Amino acid sequence: MSNCGGVDYIGEFIGAVKGMLIMMALWGLLVTAVLWLAGHGDKILGYLVGTAVSAVYFLLICYRVRRSAALPTRQAVVYMRTGWLIRLSFIVLVLAWSLKVPAINFAAAVAGLLSLQIVLFLQGLFMIMKRYGKVI
């Protein structure tokens, strides 16, 4: 993932990662504000924990993608496939921890975990709107 043929792939990759993290932070702040305004302040900590875990999960995937780009195709596929267990274990450990800590609402933590998927969906929707000028 270096400069190949005048295209700075690593710069694009880092820019996309930063953009996604910013979108996740904005989404987290928006949902946190809605929870607070709706009087569900007890769920904010759980939601923020879930969103943070989702962001770390995204960074773990990005790390694997960046490392695998320098490997031959077969090794890259094996490298990417072995990473799922680490990421899944991380999520399970944090969710188990959130069950043990009374201040963290488990359902809100699970909802926070979905923030990556929601932001990915919204980015896809924005891409379609930008390309076609309207929602299909």
Describe this structure in words.
- By secondary structure, the chain is an all-alpha fold.
- It contains five helices and two strands, in the order ββααααα.
- It has helices spanning 9-37, 44-68, 73-100, 106-113, 115-132; strands at 3-4, 7-8.
- It has a two-stranded antiparallel sheet with strand order 1-2.
- α1 packs antiparallel against α2 (44-68) and α1 (9-37) packs across α5.
- The longest helix is centred in the first third of the chain and has 29 residues, at 9-37.
SSE layout:
Layout: E1 3-4, E2 7-8, H1 9-37, H2 44-68, H3 73-100, H4 106-113, H5 115-132
Antiparallel strand pairs: 1-2
Approximate shape? flat
First-to-last CA distance: 34 Å
Elements, N to C (H/E): EEHHHHH
Largest sheet: 2 strands, antiparallel
Numbering strands along the chain, what is their spatial order in the largest sheet?
1-2
Q: Based on helices, strands and strand pairing, what is the structural class? A: mainly alpha
List the total number of helices.
5
- Mean pLDDT over the residues: 88
